[in-house]
Amino acid sequence: MTPPDTPISGSPLELACNFTVDPARTDEYEVTWSRQLTGAPSADDIFYYYNGSTSLLGGVDANGTIGFYDTVAVFTLTLAYSNESDTGSYSCRVQDTGTMAVDTATADVTVLGKAQTTMYLRLLCT
Question: Beta-carbon neighbour count of residue 85 at 10 Å?
Fold first, then answer.
């Protein structure tokens, strides 16, 4: 998994992981996205895919998509509105339920705070 560009609070956060798959068995892959937020004692599962069905877990406002392209699968997790509290380590775990093979990819993500803008107002008194 390639770490995303550094997101700024309020912008989308998108993570994608690519895995080699058997195109004849796309219904036999189980995918779990999890994250361990900075300072959290353990990781939480936030998205789950199996046999064509997806589930969001843990009350996270996110969206997950799966794309199969011949022998490559792309599993994407998107948080539409990220904030600094989304900073942490994100993992994508793929299990082939036929062979029980497991592969995992992890990326550390830092969400930056919004830039402060200074506005000057000029009043002209007459």
Answer: 11
CA distance linking residue 123 with residue 112, whole number of Å: 34
Higher pLDDT among residues 114 and 119, named by residue: 114
Strands 44-50 and 62-69: unpaired
Task: Identify the three-state secondary structure at position 121.
Answer: coil
Residue 61 pLDDT exceeds 80? no
Report the distance separating Cα 72 and Cα 54, nearest Å. 19
Q: Is the pTM of this model over 0.70?
A: yes
* List of domains in the chain: 13-109 (2.60.40.10)
Which residue has tokens 């990326």? 107
Distance CA 52, CA 68 (A): 11
Which has the higher per-residue pLDDT, 23 or 102? Answer: 102
Phi, psi (deg, nearest 5) at residue 37 = -70, 150
* Dihedral Cα 80, 15, 46, 43, nearest 10 deg: -130
